[in-house]
Amino acid sequence: MKFFGKGISNDSLVTGIKKRWLTSNCGLILDSKRNYHPVWRVDSILFDDFLSGIERRSGLSLGRRLAHASSESEEWISIVSNNSFPKGRKPERWKNTKLDWLERGIGNFELLDDDSETRLLIKYPINGPLCSGVFTANWEKATGKRHKFRWNHNNVESLILMISEDHMKIPRPSPISPSWFYEKPVISQNEDIDFWDSLEVESDKYWSIMGRRFAMINQDVILRFESYFLPYLEEIHEGRKESYSWADIDKKRSLLWTIFSDTIREIFYSQKHHILISGNTDWVNVSKRHLERQGLGKIDSVSPIDEFGGIEVSFSSCYHPAIFSGIMSGCWERANGRSAKCEFYYGKNSNTIRLVSMNEISHD
Is 31 left (phi over 0), alpha (psi -120 to 50) or beta? Predict the structure, then answer.
């Protein structure tokens, strides 16, 4: 039995992971330690590809924006969740914070030196900017002071985070809400015995499923990232620009959602999943496998809208409509062998996407 830190075994960490992350009636995964906020159970390689695709399509660097979004989100969620905060300038004593990082699968940390500038080693970060932002928020809570931060990648498995006190007065974060219909999820009472199948822990590093590293990314991080990114977004530089429409979503946010959606669609399609559809219920099963297992939502109902495979899908809640729509577009293209056009809209009681062929099909 292997141990990390002081007296916490791998077996205990596995148990903690399974208890912390709860499934729900609407296909979201909820963080039981953080006010039941939704999280994305994401493959580390897919997450890297997702961020790289956003940079390519937008023509913008997202590092600093993601770092500040994650720092702000970490501070906000810690406050509203009434979690115990780390205390003092000795991270080796932050047992609960280190456990939190490991349960989330985002990495680990240790102090290198604490002089005029504090330097830390972030080990096995799921993403450099995201982890730098999270740790800086932890450090600010521990010291009661604001800090500036920067980072340099040490190697593929670590980075050096440099923190120095900032005397600027920065207000605490404000709440941020989804800009689509969002029904409060209900914790599922039915245990999914396959949900944590093949879960393994790499001591003091991260956890994996079926040999692939995963992490939990909070929905609030993505929403705050949007806010940091939108002011600088002007156009889409590559990918499909006309494949998506977003009813009642402003122009800039529509651009960003198109970038999100087309990026995840392309990633999903390139994974070469076999999607076989013989009836509407098959779409529900597809959503369970490719959306619900990752905490992205699930289909409530589906109905055909044309004779060429077009469908209308309704769902009550989701992690993010653009990610949901992108994966469903990839599924539709895999099932039908044609490029999809996706239309999203929401009402008082549900969200809806319509998936049809991008190109007109002859009736001959």
Answer: beta
